[in-house]
Automatic annotation (TrEMBL):
GO cellular component: external side of plasma membrane
GO BP: any one term: regulation of cytokine production
SMART domains named in the record: IG
Name of the molecule in the record: Ig-like domain-containing protein
Length: 363
């Protein structure tokens, strides 16, 4: 007597017969699965008709049950991940300045702030224990209940831009400890909360170096051919600089003898570099400090030009000393002219006095 079954319920099948059914193929070479109501295509070929939350269980082998919509769920998650792919940006800020961390949702659709959650976090997982929330906006209101102390009163959103999808964060008074990768996550509350936008911003810091100071040997016409030393220093910059020594006579690079970089308590650097070269009758040396991140180049120059003939004087190319010399020469000239005029006036006065003394009135 054949066993009676309820309509739509799978009939128990021996293992061997089950394996035979599992191997049965359609004319197109596609796998089929045996069910109580006839053969159907495998769940992988029916993803388009599956619905979230309505996955059926299909017997794939003796004693095993797997969700029919499992692969569809994975596909759905993959599609969502692709749609909300991370937007990555890099920005550079100077210490003490304000930095804007960009997070812009470009989809042109109306946004209701009451249905949104915006989270700014530090992307580094190892830092999550120290700081989990940089800034949060929940249902159109700032939520600072879980904000890190380090960012207290230093973050704000642009309220006039939120409804247009601009969730950028303004970070005030940037310090060395703010160098992180920040992550912006925007969620929209529907039947199930979903992420509609993500962005990452790498915040790098930079500080301009001071104007370099270059010192060299005392100008001496007898030092030609001897080894002379130049010193160049600059400080309080970030990150570490590149130092270049240049022979301006032929624009060739010179190798420094030594370069020391010192780290200060505030994280900035100072650099001291030394150059040793053979002295020449015409020396033009330049020290250049490059801040690669800010694309800044600061330089100082040393110039010495010596005359081998003529009066034997030398010009060191120092405009300050040249100006002082010209000023001194002018003063000496003026004093000389005044002295000559004074002497001439005295002579004329004496002459006139002697003429008056020798004059006698007629009897």
């Amino acid at each position: 007597m054949e066993p009676r079954t309820r309509p739509g319920r799978a009939v128990p099948v021996p293992a061997a017969a089950h394996r035979a059914l599992g191997k049965r193929k359609s004319p197109a070479g596609q796998a089929w699965e045996g069910r109580g109501n006839g053969p159907r295509r495998a769940a992988g070929a029916r993803l388009g008709s599956a619905r979230l939350g309505s996955a059926r269980l299909v017997r794939h082998g003796p004693g095993t049950m797997k969700p029919r919509g499992y692969r569809f769920l994975l596909l759905l998650l993959f599609i969502q991940k692709a749609v909300t792919a991370l937007e990555k940006k890099n920005i550079i800020s100077k210490l003490g300045d304000n930095a804007t961390l960009s997070c812009i949702y470009n989809e042109k659709k109306p946004l209701q702030l009451k249905n949104l959650r915006v989270y700014w976090q530090i992307a580094d997982d190892s830092y999550q224990e120290k700081c989990s929330v940089v800034h949060a906006l929940i249902s159109g209101q700032d939520d600072n209940s879980n904000q890190c102390i380090h960012f207290k009163d230093r973050t704000q959103l642009f309220w006039d831009r939120l409804e247009n999808g601009d969730f950028s964060l303004l970070l005030l008074n940037v310090s060395q400890s703010d160098r992180h990768t920040y992550k912006c996550i925007v969620q929209e509350k529907t039947e199930l909360p979903k992420v509609i936008h993500q962005a990452e911003v790498v915040l790098s810091l930079a500080v301009s170096y001071s104007q370099p100071i270059l010192s060299g040997p005392i100008r001496n016409s007898d030092s030609t051919g001897e080894e002379v030393t130049f010193y160049c220093r600059s400080g309080n910059g970030y990150p570490k600089p590149n130092v270049y020594w240049i022979n301006k006579v032929n624009n060739s690079l010179l190798s420094p003898s030594k370069t020391d970089i010192i780290t200060h308590d505030d994280g900035t650097f100072s650099v001291f570099s030394t150059l040793k070269v053979k002295a020449a009758s015409n020396m033009q040396i330049e020290c250049s400090i490059e801040n690669e991140m800010l694309q800044e180049n600061l330089s100082a120059n040393y110039t010495q030009q010596k005359k081998v003939s003529g009066s034997g004087t030398e010009s060191d190319g120092n405009p300050e000393k040249k100006g002082r010399g010209a000023q001194a020469a002018g003063i000496i000239g003026i004093v000389s002219v005044i002295g000559l005029l004074t002497g001439l006036i005295c002579c004329l006065w004496r002459r006139r006095s002697s003429n008056l003394a020798s004059y006698k009135a007629p009897a």
